[in-house]
Design a protein that fits this description.
heterodimer, A: mainly beta, seven-stranded mixed sheet, 11 strands, 49% strand, B: mainly beta, five-stranded antiparallel sheet, 0% helix
């Protein structure tokens, strides 16, 4: 899992609540990413950030928000607008935002369950 | 949208056998990467092959890339029980990666 930490490992949310998932990296990477993974499925991109104070929507950004105030931190908030938030959430980083040459390093994931 | 599609979806083999899984994609790529995911864990990068490369090796892993067919294959030789995991291919688009749905490999001891 490299130098990326995610917390908590398990998170339970009641319907209508916002929750924030933490992602921290000590790899000095410029780019960071959030993915959602549903059972037996691949990864879908929620948001990505190429540099501090900048981020872009991915393929399934609705109901999610992010911030990138520090290089090492990229928290994800799952809002009440996300209708089906139960999933496994993975954070990743890469040294540069140049996908032509770079690889991604993943955190251990957070499993979010809506009660 | 998922660009990479792995085949087969699931594979079960005996320890010591070789495992081959395939990935197809739809658009032009800069590179293609393979990742492994153990159950309930994050993904681990295995190997990257650039669009101008045809084959690459890393230990017991062999990856091929055929850009004319828009496909790649991952071969794991002499498999071990510890190789049991899901394997994903990822293609690099502009500023982001697109992952396939994965092949679930089970190696029986």
């Amino acid at each position: 899992d490299g130098g990326i930490t995610q917390s908590p490992k398990y998170l339970f949310r009641k319907e209508g609540q916002n929750v924030t998932l933490s992602c921290e990296q000590n790899l000095n990477h410029d780019a960071m990413y959030w993915y959602r993974q549903d059972p037996g499925q691949g990864l879908r991109l929620i948001y990505y950030s190429q540099i501090v104070n900048d981020f872009q929507k991915g393929d399934i950004a609705e109901g999610y928000s992010v911030s990138r105030e520090k290089k090492e931190s990229f928290p994800l908030t799952v809002t009440s607008a996300q209708k089906n938030p139960t999933a496994f959430y993975l954070c990743a980083s890469s040294r540069l935002a140049d996908t032509r040459t770079d690889t991604q390093y993943f955190g251990p994931g957070t499993r979010l369950t809506v009660l | 949208s998922q660009q990479g599609e792995e085949d087969p979806q699931a594979l079960s083999i005996q320890e010591g056998e070789n495992a081959t899984m395939n990935c197809s994609y739809k658009t032009s790529i800069n590179n293609l990467q393979w990742y492994r995911q153990n159950s309930g864990r994050g993904l681990v990068h295995l190997i990257l092959i650039r669009s101008n490369e045809r084959e690459k090796h890393s230990g017991r892993l062999r990856v091929t890339l055929d850009t004319s067919k828009k496909s790649s294959s991952l071969l794991i030789t002499a498999s071990r029980a510890a190789d049991t995991a899901s394997y994903f291919c990822a293609t690099a688009g502009t500023y982001k990666y697109i992952f396939g749905t994965g092949t679930r490999l089970k190696v029986l001891a």
